[in-house]
Design goal:
mainly alpha
Length: about 190
C-alpha cells in the first residue's frame, strides 16, 4: 500500500518572510525595468534628435535650421495623427465586437408558449408524412357513459336553487344534510 507523504506546513512567520522577500524582489525588478525604459528613451531621442549646435550660425542658417525642424515636427505630427486614428478605429471595432458577443451570448427572453390542440391524425400525418392513411379514433377506446344514468342519480328537489339554499342554511339545514346522508348510507 502506497502512503501519501505530506509536505510539512510552512509556519506563519516563514510564510510572512517569504512574502516580504517576494515583494522586495518584485520592487527591485520594477525599478530596474523603469531604469531600462528611461535609458532606451534617451538613446532613441539621441538617435532621432541629435543635440543642436547653434553657436556660430548666421541668421539665415538659423532660419534654415528652424524650417527643417518645423518640417520634421509636421512629419511627426502626421504620424501621430495617423496612429491615433488607427487606435480610435481599433477601439471602436473592439467595442462593436464586444457588443456583438454580448448580444450573441445574452439573455434572451423566452416567449410564452401557447398550448396547441392537435388531433392524433394530424400528429401521425406530421410524423409519417403522406404515408399516413389509417385514421386513429382514440375516442372509440373510451368507456361509454349513458346520459340517462347520470340524470337518475340526481335528486329532483334541485328545481329552484334559491329555496334549497334557504332551506339548508343554519344549523337546521346542516342537520337535514346530515340526516339525509345517514339515511342514504343505510
Amino acid at each position: 500500500i502506497l502512503s501519501k507523504q505530506r509536505k510539512p506546513k510552512i509556519s506563519a512567520s516563514r510564510k510572512l518572510m517569504l512574502k516580504s522577500l517576494m515583494v522586495a524582489k518584485a520592487k527591485e525588478e520594477l525599478e530596474q525595468e523603469i531604469l531600462v525604459k528611461e535609458e532606451e528613451k534617451h538613446r532613441y531621442l539621441a538617435e532621432r534628435a541629435p543635440p543642436l549646435n547653434t553657436s556660430g550660425l548666421s541668421l539665415g542658417q538659423l532660419q534654415d535650421l528652424c524650417r527643417e525642424l518645423h518640417a520634421k515636427i509636421d512629419v511627426v505630427d502626421e504620424e501621430r495623427y495617423d496612429i491615433e486614428a488607427k487606435v480610435m478605429l481599433n477601439t471602436r471595432e473592439i467595442k462593436d465586437l464586444n457588443i456583438k458577443v454580448l448580444d450573441l451570448r445574452g439573455k434572451f427572453k423566452r416567449p410564452n408558449l401557447r398550448r396547441v390542440r392537435v388531433s392524433a391524425d394530424a400528429i401521425l400525418r406530421s410524423l409519417l408524412g403522406s404515408k399516413h392513411k389509417v385514421s386513429m379514433d382514440l375516442r372509440a377506446n373510451l368507456k361509454s357513459v349513458k346520459k340517462e344514468d347520470t340524470e337518475k342519480k340526481r335528486p329532483v328537489e334541485d328545481s329552484d336553487w334559491r329555496k334549497n339554499v334557504e332551506a339548508m342554511s343554519g344549523m337546521e339545514g346542516r342537520k337535514k344534510m346530515f340526516d339525509a346522508a345517514k339515511g342514504s348510507a343505510q
